[in-house]
Each structure stands twice: as structure tokens, then as C-alpha cells.
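Protocol step 6 of 9: fold each sequence in the batch and record its C-alpha cells directly after the sequence line. For illustration, a two-sequence batch is reproduced in full.

Sequence one:
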Amino acid sequence: MNGPDWDLISSYAGLLCLASVSIYVGAHGSLPALKKSVKGTDKSVVQDDEDEDEDVPDRLSSADAWLFPVAGSVALFGMYAIMKYFGKEWINWLLAWYFSIAGVGSVWKSAASLVRFAVGDARWKTFDRNRVLVLKGPRGLCLMLQLRKCVSLRTPTIAVFPLALIPSVLFSRSRKSALITDILALSFSHNAICLLKLDSFKTGCILLSGLFFYDIYWVFGTDVMLTVATSLDVPIKLLWPKSLVFASERGNTLLGLGDIVIPGTFVALALRYDHARGQSKGTFRKRTFAGLVTTMTVMHVFGKGQPALLYLSPACIVTFFGVACFRGELGDAWKWVDDQKSGETPVVQDGSGKSHEGDATGESVEQSDGGARTKSKSKKRVQ
């Protein structure tokens, strides 16, 4: 009887670690940043201490979630038709350059986030801010001050830019190793989870359910998914060599970014819900994340990786309903809407009926819209 294949097991473990770290970091990157003011300070556009990456992106609504499988099907079949009738060489060449250029910005943003995490927010805010104002006409400065539109980069962000060029340059020069592919893919997944934010658990369930049937149809019903996935040579997947010494003779195990980003957005939503509840233990996030990791382990050890969302979608949905019912918060969680457009932290109620507000402190929150400043009243922490 043959012993366990440690090369293959190590490959599964490595791939699972990459996916888990990507989701964990991306979920924390999706948390809202409160804008706090300090008494006695007079901030202007040039003196403001807010970072350039704290703009609030639009949330993905239920209407958008219904269209996701449709848009994905159109794009997938379109690429399949192009490959079938025109060949895959030129589209691989075009997409390789596209992802190389997009990879520069993606790796740059991820590298800057990594540096900020390493030095801490307090240290980060001591670095110089470098602003670029694009002015036109004699009244350009006044208009810029009013709209608060400018490019603002701290010194470490500028310093890591040359490093962000290296993976894209190597990838575009046909050095498409597993390491280079993983660096680009991890940056893409990190930024996608940070920016693609669901507005509610209802939207998340609709999205996961739609993509559940989407994956089943295109994998089992046709050869479209398999043909496109095996023909494209672009950094939209995580790779790990099937070897303890990282040799390439046996090839690589792989996991598509869609199978990381889509469940990752749901885990990120659970984390923001815990944040809004003021729950430091992160009940929803931890148990949803644990369910996701367990399902990925079972999928790779005992089954095949396609279609991954066949396993991941039910895991996220069942874990959410199970935790919500166990804690008696199903109604509150289902009605909760993650809306940060107003700059306010959403308030929800836990099972005891007490209201919680994410990161509630005695400091006032300051907002600016077109140069007009308003301060909310100081809120005391709920005991």
C-alpha cells in the first residue's frame, strides 16, 4: 500500500494558505475608515490628514447581483467564441499586456497597504504627503479647493512604485512562473475584495446562489468553462507546485480568482457586520471564514477543484444562516444594510436589544462636502 503523497498534500496546503491569507487581508482592507477631527485644528485641503485611498466605493446591490451571472455568461461565451474561430494566441498576447499594465497599479496599491500595516497608522501619518494639483484657468485653485480633487501620495507609497513594476515586467517577458503569477493574482484578489463590497447579506445570498448555478451549467453542461480556463495564460489563478521542494516536473495545483473573490466578499461583509455591531470577537466573520476554509480543504483533498463554487457558495450561505439562527440575530442580520456613503457608521441591534456602533468613541467625527464642515455630537460608548 502506497503511503500518502506528501508532495500533493503540501501543494493543497500551500494553495489553501494563499487563498485564506488573501481573503483575510482583503476582508480587513474593506473595513470603513472613520474620519476623526482633533480639537483646535484647522484643516484645509492641503493640510487634511485623510489618506488618498479612503474614498467610499459604491456597494453592490441586489439588482447588480442578479445581473452578475448574466454578465459573466456573456463574457465567458464571448471569449470562447473568439478562441474557437480566431485562435487563442492573439487574445493571450492582448490579455497578457492588459494584466501586466493593470498589475502595476494592483501590486502598487497592495504593496503600499502592506507597508502601512507594517509601520502602523500612527507612524504612517508622520510621513510627508505629496500632492499633485491639476489646475486650469485663473479660478482653478478655488475650484480645486472646493471640490477637494487632487492626487495625494505619501512618501513610502512613491518609494514602492519601482518594486511594483518588477512582477509585471517579468510576466510580460514570458517569465510566467508560479511565483510571479501568484504575486499578481494575490494583488488582484486583495484589491477586488477591498473594493467589491456587498450592501447586505441578502445581496450576498443572491450573488452566491446565482453563481452556484452559473458554475454548474458552464462546467457540467458545456465545455466552455474548461476550454477558456485551460487556454488563457493570464494571472487570474493561484498556483502552487506539486512538490515539497517546489519542483515543476509534476505541474501545479490551481485555484481561480473568482473562487476566492466571490466568497471573500461575503466573508468581508460578515466582518463589516461584526464591526458595525461593535463585536470584538468577530463571531460572524470567524465562523463564516472557518466554514469557507473547511470547505476548501474538503474540496481539494477529497474532490476536484471544478466547479469550486458548487462547494463554496452553500458553505457561505449555510454558515451565515446557522450562526445567525444560533445567536438569534437572523432578522437583524438580514435587514442590516452596509451603507457608508453618508460617512456614518451603521448601527444595528444585537440579541439583547442594545444598539452598537462600530468603533464608538468620545471623539467627534468630521465630514467635508464642498468645503463645508459639520461636526456630529460626541457620542458616549454604550455601557
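Sequence two, same batch, same settings:
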Amino acid sequence: MSVLCPPTTYLPPIAKIASFSVAQLLDALTYLQSLYHPEVRGSRRKRVQVPVSNGEQNLRLRHEDDSELQAIRSDAFERSYSIRWLTTLIAQLEVWQDLSHSEEVSLDDLGTPEPTLAYTEIIVQQAASLLAICAGVAAAGIITRNFVFGSTDGQRRVEAQLTDIPLDNNDYGSVGAQTWGGACILAEMIVEDPERFGLYSSSHSPESRRLNVLELGAGTGLVSLVVMKLLDTLLSFNHREVHVVATDFHPSVLANLRSNVDANVSSTHNQMISTHSITTHFLDWSLFSTTPRPDCLSYPFDVVLGADIIYEAQHAVWIKGLTIPPAAFHLVIPLRPTHTFESNTVESVFLQACDVDPKGDADLVILSKEYITCDAYGDYTRGQGLDEDVEYVYYKIGWFT
């Protein structure tokens, strides 16, 4: 497949749709799915079963030039052509379905696509779904994805539906309006092993006190929502109070974060699980130490989470000032060539535990460090010269006394 190929070039000609095979039509639909409803880049860990958006193994386009990709995706003519193509495909298949039920027409008279009713229904469903995406809110740059995370033993399963919104006039501060791969990786790791992230309840005193969880730079809210939904399912937390606070800074990001939380946490949630709650709140890291703290941020947190939140030189410094005992800070960041300096600030602000004077004052240190490698756009491109890796670092940062 040609990378960054527009629909007018890649899709089978509209006038000849009826002459193409089921396999070719499915390939075309997968191409459109990847173009107009893409999976989060860099969210698939290698050699590990990982979350799949919408429950499908999608074709992932590797885009060497994201600006060129965005140009195709936002091109009104290309989108209009895709809508006409999908409309024609659905109409053609519906005619085929009607004829296949006719006693006056034999299957041999129908030609291609192959006369398999099951395949036809699948294609119609996929095409109809894509048509709604292309003609609906996705046309305005709004994308809604379904995420499913599960433990390797099959004992835990968490689902969340999140909406991404367009960046605010290319304002760099609004990057949280979209779901990034680091959030997917952190959410998946938490579901796989909650205890690793301090999300466990003591068997001898499960109701001792509230578990407080804070997410910094929550963005679309994926990590906070996954934590909340996960703890709702764990029996050890049935009677323990839990409070999750999802924070962000940019107005449009915070509004979308609140919308996603409302969409995932029903109005009856607090009635069913009265001890568990999740809230959203504005938080300016740079002013945290100099301004009065709101009630929801005034108590100590047990767990602090952050995914892809180090992209300016001062971020690590500000975050250190936010993390107070007894909190453990779990951070996942991508190693972007364009942000090497910013990424390196983590290890200059937070020292390694072995480098800290054991006789000195308590300090936040890096307790562990793990590299994580992901396929940029899944396994479809393997063997075609299109594979690309995205590398992350997971830091566990805690108090050294």
C-alpha cells in the first residue's frame, strides 16, 4: 500500500465497485478506518497483548509526515469522495443482498463480490459506521474511541470511551485535548498489575482510610477513568473509600476532560459505589506552591500518576513541588528526538536512589526505571518496510528517607 495515498487514488473506482472482491473491499474499508478513525500512535507494546480501539485489528498507516497526513484527513474534497464511495458501496451491496434472496436470480449471476451473505453484512456494517464517522463529528476533528484493557490472566477487564477534540488553534498548551500513547501504556500497565502502582488494599484493615489518587495532566482522562473503573471491580476496595482527582490546565482540555468523565461515570455511580468518587480540577503546576489549595488537593495523595507530561524544561521541577509524602509518583514519558533535553530533566531533578545521601533529608528519588518499546502503528506494516518503534520510559519515583 502506498503511504499517505489519498482516497481518490487508493480506493477502487466508484464506477467499478461491483467488480472488486470482498478482500479488496475490506482492504479499502480498513484504509479509510485508519485514515479517518486512527488508533492512538505508539499504544501497542511489543510482544504483549495490548488494548485495541473499537475491538478491531486495524490497518495503521505509518505517516512519515504528520502534516501531510493531516492535510489529507482535513481535505474536504477527499472526505467528500470517501463519503460518495461509501454510499455507493452500501447501495451496491444492498442490491446484491436483495438479489441474493431472489428465487429468479442464481448466485452465479451476481458476480463479485463473492456471494457470501455473512461477508456482505460485515462490509455493510463497517461501511455504514465509517460513513457516519466521515459525515459526522469526525469531520470537525472530533474522534471518539473505545478502549479495552485486560489483565493477562483474564481476571480484570476495564472499558472506557473517550472523545478527542481538535487542538485549540494550534495552541501547544492544548495538546491534552487528544489521547496520547503514553496514557494508553500507563493505563494498560495499571490494569495488568494494580499492586505495582500502589492500588491495593490491606487484607487486615481494608477500611483503614481513604485511598487518594491524583493524575497530573490528565488530558482526555484515560488513566484516571481506568483507575476508577478498575477499583470499582476489585473486591478488596468494595468498602474502602477511594477518591480520584484528574487535573489539567488548559480550558478546552479541562472542559473535554469533564465531559469524558461524565460520559464514563453514570449519574447512579455514587449510589451504587458510594465510597468511590472521581472529580476533575484545574491545576497550574507553576503556582501550586504559592497559591491556596482547593479542598480536593489539600490532602496527601497515595498515588500520583502522569503520562506524557514532560515536554517543557520546567515541568519536572514543578511536578516535584506537587508530590508530597507519602505519594509515590508513576511517570511514563515518550523518548522523542525533538524533546531530548526536556526528557533528560527528569533524571536531573529526581536523583537515583543510589546517589542520595542516606543521612540527608527525605527526598524524592527514582526508585526504578524501565524502557518500553511499542510499535508505532501496530503489526500490519511488518515486513513491508514500514515498521517503526516508539520508545517510552516508565519511572517509579518515591520518597527516600
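Proceed to step 7 once all outputs are recorded. Observation for sequence two: The CA atoms of residues 100 and 108 lie 10 Å apart.
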